[in-house]
Structures are given as C-alpha cells and as structure tokens.
Amino acid sequence: MTATTAPPPTAVTIPTPWSVRMMPYMLLAPAVLVTLFIVFFPMVQAVYTSFYDLILWKPNASRFVGFGNYVKLFADPVFWTALGNTAIWIGLTVPLQMGLGLLTALLLNREFPWRGLARAW
To answer: Among residues 86, 42, 48, 88, which one has the least CA distance to residue 66?
Structure first.
C-alpha cells in the first residue's frame, strides 16, 4: 500500500488596505517636509544666489555673474587662510571630543559610588 501525502498548503496573502501600507510614509512626511524647508530650500537658494552679484539693500539691482564670484573666492588669499584654519580646527577638535567621549563612557562603565547619578547627569 502506498502512502499519499497532501499537497503543501499555499500561502494565502491577505490584501492590506491602502492606509496600512501608507502609514510609514504618512508618519515620515512631517519630518521630511520640515527638513526640506529648514535645510534643503535655503541651501538651494544660497547656491542660486551665489551666481549673482547681489547687494542686499538693492535686491532689484542684482546681475548674473555666473562663476565670477567663485573665481574671486578662489583667488582670495584670505579664503585659503580661513579654509586652512577651519581644517586645523576640525582636525584637532573632532578627535579630542571623540576621545573625551570615549574616556567618559569607559569611566562611567566602571562601578563606583553614585554611578547612577553620574550616568543620569
């Protein structure tokens, strides 16, 4: 006598409503919109404005200069001095802050009196 086996059950997919599928996007939308308005749009406007010779108290007298502002910027020795100072500042402060943070985390990981208070602070 031969044994017969039943066919494996097929996976039944239950259709999910549109609102359930869209819920993650609806929850992310406010954060994305705030980010667009606070970060992205001013950044695009700054790049757009950088191609114009703009006088703030005479906004109607602006004229398109293309990459002329960038040519003047890269030819200015003050820019290169400021860029070098910024690179030095970042090169010193970022590793120092990371090292102090790591040292603090290692110290707070040890047992000592008032450890909970120190961790909460």
So the answer is: 48
Q: 61 near 55, Cβ under 8 Å?
A: yes
Tokens 């020795």 locate to: 77
Cβ atoms of 121 and 104 closer than 8 Å: no
Residue in the block written with tokens 């695009």:
44
What is the C-alpha to C-alpha distance for residues 67 and 77, in angstroms, rounded to an integer? 18
Q: Which amino acid is at 16?
A: T
Q: What is the pLDDT of residues 34-82, one digit of tens each?
A: 999 999 999 999 999 999 998 888 888 889 999 999 999 999 999 999 9
Q: What is this structure's pTM? A: 0.61
